[in-house]
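pls read this stuff:
=====
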Amino acid sequence: MNATLPDADACRTRVGAALDRWLTPDDAWPPRLLEAMRYSVLSEGKRLRPLLCYYTGRALGIDDSRLDGPACALEMIHAYSLIHDDLPAMDDDDLRRGRPTCHRAFDEATAILAGDSLQVLAFQVLAEDATMDTDAAARVEMIRLLARASGPAGMAGGQAMDLEAQGRTPSSAALEAIHRRKTGALIHASVMMPAAAVAGLDPDRHRALDSYARHIGLAFQIQDDILDVIGDSALMGKQQGADAERDKATYPALLGLDGARREARRTAEAARDALAPLGAAAAALAAVAGFVVERAH
């Protein structure tokens, strides 16, 4: 993983330390709830969304220190979504990142509340984080982007569409719409939130990042579909074959495994091509395009 993503370990360490600070014991927080939040957020993961946040910032000349808040907010929303996705009412999973899912490690009610708490804490971070060194307008735009990516027009809406599509064979356009929302929307926000910190960003560069973000989010989810068919459960840290067991709408089911691989590569290449207006400054973002379709977990 780290061979293709520059400075990835340092970025993961950085956001991990920032998350730890936001999740420091507080007398006002029930201890068991905080423990469940920390269990879910601080477990080892790819941290793709914070990486995209830092990489975009670097491409635009923003110091990492100004993006710790957005990086934390993105990872908190992602962790909340995983906690809730794993619940019995949703995917009913027992394993996440190689460990028992939150509701198995604690209990279902605590898991729900941990997810709820992480969701709202993400917006508190964007409103309060002192290290962001940005004006109120930029903060509001980041909050807007994250809210839209997380809600009915984004991740939550995509999950609802995904549930409705179970047992059916959607069209290619319908499947793409599901994937762009349920996974792609938060990845898109991971790129566009740091862009919001740059006042008067050149429109060509903004459009380039927007196009890149839309393509990279779709490519990531297509590869997730592929790994559910061919991946190693031990390496992925979750159960392989779960999509087929639940009769979910996926790219391998619609296009076949080879067709899904071609679509993932095509989409990742489109993401890489979109970065042309940013030149060499976007080399790390271009590396992500290769990583998302080459990863084994």
